[in-house]
Design a protein that fits this description.
Blueprint (H helix, E strand, L loop, with lengths): L5 H6 L5 H30 L1 H4 L2 H25 L3 E3 H30 L1 H7 L2 H29 L7 E3 L9 H35 L2 H40 L1 H29 L2 H11 L8 H7 L5
Helix pairs in contact: 2-4, 2-10, 2-11, 4-5, 4-10, 5-6, 5-7, 5-8, 5-9, 7-8, 8-9, 9-10
GO molecular function: G protein-coupled receptor activity; odorant binding; olfactory receptor activity
GO cellular component, one term: membrane
Pfam families: 7tm_1 (PF00001)
Length: 312
Amino acid sequence: MQNISNSSLNRNPLISPSFMQKVFLVQALVGIFLYVNCLMIFTFLKKEVFREDTRYILFAQTLFVDSAFMVLTDIGVVGSFFHDSRNCTAMSFLSVCSPLTLVAMCLERYVAICMPLRHADISTSRTRFSGFVIIWSVSFIAPAFTAIAYISVNPSSAFSYVVCSVEVMLEKEWQAQVRAVILLLLFLFMLAVIVFTYIKIMIAARAASSEKKKSTSKSLRTVLLHGFQLFLSIVQFITPYIEMPFWKLDVMLFINVRYSNFIVFILAPRCLSPLIYGMRDEKFFLVLRHYALWGFNGFNHSLLIQWKIRPS
């Protein structure tokens, strides 16, 4: 286990102006991110029509999961990129749960576009519950293996403080190999679902009538955006392997590399979900704008009636 030595702490320029600027910038970005997410969660909870629709329920889960992940990650940033190994396990769980939820959202769009007559029968509360159980169970496989394997090898160091990276918890080669296989299988499964749903929706878009062409084309773009999110999320899994060699060379260089990876592969993909569903979805955006402006803008009542949304 690579514990943090006094020399490493002395080399870490915690009070340097450049480091403090990075920390303040991260706080500003995370603060904006959490404010937008909280506003969207509030919008979701306020309207029953959203709480009964599978696509919005899945969207709400991404907001909850991404917000929790960002809070834990931000604590690591404020803590000078050092953290408790137990929270590393929690962050690993959340980092897998988010892309799996994106995959579920793509499947929901596939059912809605390609099987519209069966959508209501498939998208039930029981199906949603089963889907969430599957997502949470699969998300727990990799972090559970990492934690159990680490404790079995280092029972006396289970609660020591380490560099906040799951990879430093894998001392044995077989541990890293098994975890890599688990993540690879997850990635191939998620990639296969994304490609499958994209192809099916693309076929449906070509065969759709002019009235449904707009809806299917929008769903196609949504799946593409989810695919891009998935790509960024998957790259996040390999960034620790890029960062750790810099830790051995120079702490400041390690901080700069981790900071860049944090912005590009952790913050950026989690900013896309609010844009995809919060801003591009006309129904949700109408209600969101109302609450964002503290009710000063009036509702379009004709649209509310059309979408069966009760004004409040």
